[in-house]
Amino acid sequence: MYEMIKLNYNYKDLEPYYDSNMFNYHYNVLYKGYTDNLNKIMSDFNSDRKNDDFSNIQSLSKKLSFNANAYILHSLFFENLIPMPNKTLLNSKLVNHIKKDFGSYDAFINELNKSLLNIEGPGWVVFGYDKYLDKLLIIQVEKHQDLILIDFVPLLVIDVWEHSYYLQYKTDKTEYIRNLFYILDFNVVNNRYNSI
Ligand SMILES: [Fe+2]
Exposure winner among 11, 50, 99, 154, fewest CB in 10 A? Predict the structure, then answer.
């Protein structure tokens, strides 16, 4: 059984940067739905294996990609948030790695912002490390039912689906992104980086 991650903050404390009603809907309705779906899909896979009946494997496989990625990405996203006052910083080893791969820290931040603002339709922006390419990268994950990079370890995950900001920010994605930066937990990013 997969479970929703436990939050180590009270989501009212993310205000005013992230409205608590919007968070409640995002976490307790949408994220719960993806988690429940994932568990149902796993159980359907088990039944099919038991019955040696793979007649619906195509639709099951699509549902798996969509819901498993939604579950993973939301878990990582909610984990990398923190209420204000947010004193977390990227550690110097990761900052040096960023400078090496992106040219400068400013270039990294600019690329992150542009990736968030210019994603086409619903999706995610993920900053991570690809082991095979040996490279830190920012990728736009436009549809999470599609596979993301193989061997890519997510370090920072940001939800830019409309449901993640519309109730509070309407169509002002720029303001949502600006405010989200106040509540990103870079300690979590450091820990993920250190465990590569
Ligand atoms: Fe979301």
Answer: 50
- Taking the centre of ligand 1 as the mean of its atom positions, its distance from the CA of residue 160, in whole angstroms, is 7
CA-CA-CA-CA dihedral for 189, 32, 60, 48, to nearest 10:
110
| Domain residue ranges of the chain, discontinuous segments joined by + | 19-196
Percent of the chain exceeding pLDDT 90 equals 88
Distance 151 CA to ligand 1 centre (A): 23
Q: How far, in Å, CA of 181 to CA of 185, rounded?
A: 9
CA of 63 to the centre of ligand 1 (A): 16
- 19-196: CATH number: 3.55.40.20
148 — pLDDT class (breaks 50, 70, 90): low
Q: How much distance in Å is there from the Cα of 55 to the middle of ligand 1?
A: 31
* Residues within 5 A (CB) of ion ligand 1: 159, 161, 164
Across the range 157-178, mean pLDDT stands at: 95
How would residue 142 be classed by pLDDT, with cut points 50, 70 and 90? confident
